[in-house]
Amino acid sequence: MANKTTKIVGIVGLGSMGQRYASYLKGCKDTIVIGCDVRPEVHTDDYVCVDSVENLLNTVEPDVMIIASPAEHHLEILYTVHDAVPSCSILIEKPLTNRRLELEDFERCRAFGGSLIAVGYCWRFHPYTNHLRRVRNGIRNITLYSGSDMQTWPGHHYADPLREFSHELDLVVYLTKRITLGSAALSPSGLYVMNGEHAQGKWEVRIAPFVKDYGRWIKVDMHDKSSVTYHWDVTKETIDVMYKKQANQLVHASRVSHLLCPLLSGLETTLLVDEIDARIEGQETWLPKRPM
Length: 292
Prior knowledge:
Rossmann fold; six-stranded mixed beta sheet; six-stranded parallel beta sheet; 2 domains; single chain; 9 helices; 12 strands
């Protein structure tokens, strides 16, 4: 029986991401993990597993919930969990959803702004991001690139490439202020090119979701005229540290200000992604002007 200091952590979706979080948390002191997945073949004897969110919520009152299911279900599960246990801390893996936000979604997420809800933009936890955040007032221009072949990724039911590769766009949100979108294009080869301005200069993001050679880099031009191109450290050890910090932060957070990517900040990234998507499709959108 859990005592008052024990945290009950539910993990919805036991694919590659859910199993990653379970491996981090199941051995933590005063933490009990409960897995949730409709697929019985991914259940394990390492911790209790149930087959639906409803069964999980009927079994226990979780202190923390990690939503690592396919993105099409993220918002639905968020609403279900928050309505059932308003005090539950929630981590939603990115992207927030696999589609453009409806106005109703936007307003509902805005209303959750004071709750302990985080979005899984874990690159905010990278050591080099920490450095750039400290000097962000000196950033003039920022360019980011990410290239990978998502056809080789281990999971299933991914969202579209723009949303799955949205870490770079989130870093623009995190490292600059007052972003405006200039242009957005998708080439016949599948290359996304987006650019615009921020309070102190310009930004550009290039995403290549179907290239064989993995690559990830950032180029930063500072106001003091120095310039750095940094190829991200993407070793397993570094990635593990980022995800562990993200999970542990949520488990131990007592205020929204303790979260590196609270829901409202993740919502800002999502709105930028939606604006880019609408621009590429040549469609009108209800989207509000940033900043939020």
